[in-house]
Amino acid sequence: QGPVCTNLGLKPGQRLTVKGKIAPNAKSFVMNLGKDATLLGLHFNPRFDAHGDVNTIVCNSKKVEEWGAEHRETVFPFQKGGTAEITFGVNQNDVTVHLPGHQFTFPNRLNLSVFDYFDTQGDFTVQSLSWE
């Protein structure tokens, strides 16, 4: 478990940038963005080799104990032992995920007007967090 941020106050038009290091023997890591730990607008889970997925990014949303439908991205710009910079841009109806050389959007299924919560878990060490 990495840092947990609350009261972020990210609104449409704002973005959160996370920089860090990926463990040399990484299996997967997670970044959650939402209202709190029970209402996740975006569960971002790059998997090197976990849960039957290899080099796949799995995204989802969670409302209390209920997960939504998984969304898979096959572009995988992460390397074990490398560094990563990921920017989450909050829009009215979705979140744009900016990765090195690739971006995609994930719908704001919970209709969150503000993203107050962020955490990281797994084989990733946060070096810096910034938002604008």
Automatic annotation (TrEMBL):
CDD domains: GLECT. GO terms for molecular function: lactose binding; laminin binding. The keyword Transport does not apply. Keywords: Lectin. The keyword Protease does not apply. One of its GO terms (cellular component) is extracellular space. It holds the Pfam family Gal-bind_lectin. This is Galectin. Gene3D superfamilies: 2.60.120.200. Residues 2-132 form the Galectin domain. Coiled coil: none annotated.
